Amino acid sequence: MPGLVSQIAGLRRRLALVPAPARASGEASNGEPVQVEMLVSGTWVDVTGYTLVRDDSGNIQITSGIRDEGSQTEAGTCTLELDNRDGRFSPRNPSGPYYGAIGRNTPIRISVPDGDGGKSYRIWGEASEWAPNWDTSGSDVWTDLSANGILRRLAQGPAPERSVIYNAITDPPLTGLVAYWPCEDAADSRSVASALTSGSPMTISGTPTLAAYSGFGASDPLPVFTGGSLTGGVTRYDNSSGQYQVRFLLSVPAAGLADSETIARVRVSPTVVGEVEYLDIEYNDPPGGVGSFGGPGTISIVPYNSEESMLGYSGEESLTLDVRSRLLRVSIEVSNNGTALSVTLRVLDINTGITDSTTIGLSGTNVTRVASVALAPSTLNQSTGATGMAAGHVTVQTTVTSITDLGAAVQPSGETAGRRMQRLCAGAGIAFDWVGDLDDTVAMGAQSRQNLLAQLQECTLADGGLLYESRSGVGLGYRTRASLYNQDPVLTLDYTAGQLAQIPVPVEDDRYVQNKVTVTVGGASATYEETSGTLRTELPPAGVGEYGQEYTLNLGSSDAGTLKDQAAWRVHLGTVDEARFPQISVNLAHPSITPAMRRAILAMRLGDRIQITNPPAWLPPDTIDQLVLGMSETITHFEHKVTFSCAPASPYSSIGVLDTAWSRIDTDGSELVANISSSATSVGVQPSAGADVLWTKDTADFPLDIRVGGEVMRVTAISDLVTDTFTRTASSGWGTSDSGFTWTASGGSATDYSVGSGVGAHLLATAGTSRRCILPTVISDFDFYVTITADQLATGAILTGSLITRYADADNFYSAQLQFTTSNTVLLVVFKRVNAVETTLGTYTMPGTTFVAGTQYRIRFKVQGPSLRAKVWLASDVETPEWQVTATDGTLTTSQFVGVRSISGAGNTNVNPSIKYDDFQIVSPQTFTLTRSVNGVAKAHSAGADVRLATPTYLAL
């Protein structure tokens, strides 16, 4: 047996001398097959020489992503043994060289060569356990080291103590912040606390209702002002900047406030008597809609002196934006403008991003400092402040900044899941990377008060992507749901080439089945249920029974459409009708793994697509197609084995929108009309019971692939079963239709049947005797059309033309009959004729219609099982959408013929009237022209076999 040195040299040759993988670190490799490093006293130390040396069975185990059978990303793990004979890996050994420098959460990283002199990192983690061990002789001493990705530590982190906007304002503090009152105090508080240690609380006057308004998603509940006010003094500060700003959140109810009520008052310290001392924000609701200031629902900035007399100013004091029913951030921005004072009132609608502002000028005065801020104060001009408004998060700063300086923190509702994750990680100082477009993720609701990991998982659940631990450093990343759509495979393995390290065993189970999902957002719920396909909720054997699942999501919208879409998407993921391949394994040291494949394997990310071609004959012939959800790696002296945890890729493939040229939306259900052989290339297809949608006939949509009984067939054309435009000339019969079917005439004499001038005609030479043109068939269900007219107005009794089906003979059939009456009305009558006895099943009279001889009407008759439906409309108009006659009857179930029938009523006095037909169409069943055995399966199929698109397009969430 070769020695350890030669074994490692062989492994180095197999693993190191290959091209570099994509997304490699760019750092230089040390040339070893594996490199283990730990951060000791701030420096990365290579400890590879202490690993894999105890015996030939030593190994390094690494996991990442979602474990098999898991539902969310777990913390990565790493376990290995370290030679500890000198005690360096005993954290509490004072004689060890690393004493005091290693311990809990010591950073660990492991890499393998990328083949181009660089490293491909397999994990960046933190030591979670050091377990010293030894044998009884004391000659074999080692430490079992366990390390985990950052998710392990984050899972144990505390929930934030304060609201989103509180943290955004204080951590780090806003520029020049000298006063801040969050106003998030409990309902029974006696004052409103300052968030700054140097600040004083706001005093409460009257009876404002604290902790009463929850409309700001970034904030804890704020006060509602109902006959009370809050006033806070500002600690003296350096005002040499020559500017300041005061900001707060404001909600004005839909009913508004009273005219001239004061919303807020900023008191400043004047340097000269008579200068500005108060800057008031006042509400406008002038009688009749016209007043001294702005229109109804606007606000104004008004300056007063110490005696509360209004000062003169230049500019417009009022905004134009109606502030009612808006969530606003309000700002008073003051700065020196030469020898004058510039005062700007600015508002930001935090939901829409709309801003409005106005500026006034005060001459002969300069910036002083803010002495106090009051919300809804009483003034000399108003005995009470604004009543009914909600406000809070009052800040005073010595500099003027953008009103959008808090970004999404001021209103996280509507923030995309990806951007929220990015912001949360940035706030926690955690490196964050991503795959996909963070803006193309779902809009989130208010930010929840949970720890960081729970918030990230909340975003992941809402969007449906994958959270992962970064391999480029200790950090996190997110792969968006949309980035999983329609991928090309990153890695393709050939089963017959021996490129797999173990047999990929398919699993047929109900582990992930969910066919009825309820999604709840903010108390509103919507449910989607799968009612078709093999995994529908119907009890076995028709379906699998109900597999229910409920999700409570934090979304920015709770409208019924959004919730239904979310539920439907989750049902889509939970009704994948194929086997799972939970594990796919490869060995990088195996000679079948080419340099390019090794590159792809090392570059594999969570969510990437992996395929296995040429599966064994006892499995379905289709390429095994999976998404990678997790990985486990084993590195030994002899191999580097990577096992991918997988789930089917099909739910994320063929995702599109309706207006793309390649989209293929499946029908509600279709089936074969008759048995077909293994070589048939023209087959009949009809809607399944309860389904109505027909297949496309547009030549631009072909070819398309369908799946029948496991066989994939390529459809090159779809046509109506029968069409006849009567463009030929025929006498004593109708001849052969455009589709090649020959009409059989029955009733009257041969001369009563003719084709010419673009119509097929029935001459009704004898009243009360029917004429019939029929086509032979064994099909019972039809959806067909024809255009009908009469060349005379009816006299004495009705003239009729009709569609007939399930025709056994002249005395047994169903009919959708168009009647031209002697009063020149047009009736649609559906009846059955059984043993020469006719029973009316439904009628419809065309409203406002007076028949004119030769006017054409089009009728449609659809018979499916016991369901009979019919409609009529003027042939020159578009088809009416509704069925005008519907009936249920199960008397006649089989068919020998289908066609048309004409008859005049007993007592009719017309002389040789004709009923004329045009544009006969049997649109269902449809005829499919196809190529067989696209996937290598060739077999016969029975009537009723399910027909589906092989790869239907699913609409993106």
Question: Would you mind describing this structure in some detail?
Answer:
- With 957 residues, the protein is mainly beta.
- Helix content is 8%, strand content 39%.
- It has seven helices and 56 strands.
- Strands 1, 2, 3, 4, 5, 6, 7, 27, 31, 32, 33 and 34 form a twelve-stranded mixed β-sheet that branches. A seven-stranded antiparallel β-sheet has the order 8-23-14-19-20-21-18, with no helix packed on it. A seven-stranded antiparallel β-sheet has the order 9-10-13-22-15-16-17, with no helix packed on it.
- It is flat and about 115 Å long.
- The two termini are 58 Å apart.
- Residues 1-24 have low confidence and may be disordered.
Structural class: mainly beta
- Rg over CA atoms, rounded to whole Å, is 40 Å
| Distance, first to last CA | 58 Å
Q: Rough shape?
A: flat
Give a count of the beta strands, DSSP E runs of length 2 or more. 56
Give the tags:
mainly beta, 56 strands, 7 helices, single chain, disordered N terminus
